[in-house]
Amino acid sequence: MKTVLRFFVLIAACISGATVDARNFQTVVIDAGHGGQDNGGAWGQVYEKHLALDTAARLESNLKRMGYKTVMLRRDDYFLTLPQRVCMSNRYKNAIFVSIHYNYTWKQQISGVETFYYSSEGQRLAQCVQSSLVGRTRTMDRNAKFARYYVLRNSTLPAILVEGGFVTNASERNLMKSGGFREAIARGVAEGIQRYRHSY
Ligand SMILES: [Zn+2]
Fold this sequence. Notes:
Elements: H1 2-16, E1 27-32, E2 42-43, E3 46-47, H2 48-65, E4 69-72, H3 82-90, E5 95-103, E6 113-117, H4 120-137, E7 141-146, H5 150-153, E8 159-166, H6 170-176, H7 179-198
Parallel strand pairs: 1-4, 1-5, 5-8, 6-7
Antiparallel strand pairs: 2-3, 6-8
The structure holds zinc ion (ZN).
């Protein structure tokens, strides 16, 4: 009975969702992609799940310094399902959702950063973040793009998914291994969020 009750409370929390006032958001929900048994893109010992978590923590520090409230969906190396990520983040009001990833492809020459969105509010956020990201990292601009990713499609918040370069590209992989580059990604995303807020 107790478990059943807890289940309904969780479902109710998810359904009630959040009305979004994009102009007035104070909270950034940060989703470090993958985790636990899900390494994400990997090359040798370089795992996307580790890069994403470190970048997410750096993003959190930058945002806090700028006066935002932050929520980290994972703070350690454990697995969360996509529905769990959506359900946890949709509980917040006056918030935006930012998922941090690194890219993987079989074509090793492909490089660059890109930001995905699903909703029109997400598009506005993605465009701000992508241009700041490119400015900070000086890497190839693969643009803000529409995508039907689960966490974007099911978010009630303005939502984006950032891909901070390709683990399959040798020179980007070397960059990613340095804290300085991951800091540049984090700072670019934080500055883009600030520009999005000021765009109203
Ligand atoms: Zn990923």
